[in-house]
Amino acid sequence: MKILMVNKFLYPKGGSETYMLGLGDYLKSIGHQVEYFGMDSDNRTVSNSIDCYTDNIDFSNSSTISKIKYSLKTIYSNEAKEKAAKVLDNFKPDIVHLNNINFQLTPSIIYAVKERNIPIVQTVHDVQIACPNHRMYNERTEKICSQCSNGHYINCVKNKCVHGSALKSVIASAESYYYHKKSTYNLVDCYICPSRFMADTITKAGVKKDKIEILHNYCDNHKTLPPKDKSKKYVLYFGRLSVEKGIKTLIEVCSQLPEIQFVFAGTGPLADVCKNIKNIDTVGFKSGDELREIIRNALFSVCPSEWNENCPMSIIESISIGTPVICSDLGGAPELIIPGITGEIFTAGDKNDLKNKILNLYNNPDALDKMSESCIKLSTNTIQNYSNKLISIYQNLINNRG
Fold it and tell me: 237: part of which helix (H) or strand (E)?
């Protein structure tokens, strides 16, 4: 099978890139042909056979004139459509798999694909279809926001939701109005939603239910593991140290539990605040085998998010190597937990509920041991299982096209 993977960044920048690159590598390893399309850059790690990519767009380092110049291009990019067409005509893929394309590539490329009668799959990494800011979270109020639901995208402009910028917010709002008015998103043949929460969110935003498949994200941590080092009694948080992740709430709970050692692995705007709590050991950003060892030896991990995360990889990674998780009840996170079996769920922002859940697990080592065993036994989010389901979706679309 010939698969064209599309994403605005073609290097491991964040979650969607890690997902796409890992999936592409695995599909190639089992005999499929995979090529990539997106923006060119000095740190690009993947390619297509004619080395055709869009010019790099970087808002963060652009002048005011450049930002204005980019504005229309980030709503509808003729360059992206034309260059995607060249790659499609050369590679002639059986299927096109979209990831994050908005702003830098734009949904204009959907039209290039459909003109060639090639099926399209898109993995939904964020809530962009429903929210111009991609987050459904107001950073100023530190609250979940749904003001743009039911198509009221002008609220993005009123609130300057995109990085506090009026220009960026106008662009994002215009993009949402434009593509929803044209029903562009329903030209995609199948949306891969990593959670029921995401499926419900994009359905409310106008995507047809029969175009949605729910596949929780895969994890590559499944391997033979050494026993836990039980001499290291600590509770773990790993991820971004920021307000929407529930770090303020978790810090307050940690300060009320001086008898428990906590380890925070990550960086972010609240990193310095975390360092002021005596029983929190901040170890900075960790990845790879070093992070896996920290996760594996933790008694349990905590995912206290106070916004709607799609399918938190921190939960999947923890469970895959036998570490139970306490998570909040927002977004797609609770879908990944079996309460009392692989972890516990608490009410987001409720300090007393979180404190009690932490104490109950910490003071019940036998229950923790059983949970750890259940995590490994019930964890099926391997890339092999994920790819088998995805290839079946690909094949059905290919068989039914036209």
Answer: strand 234-238
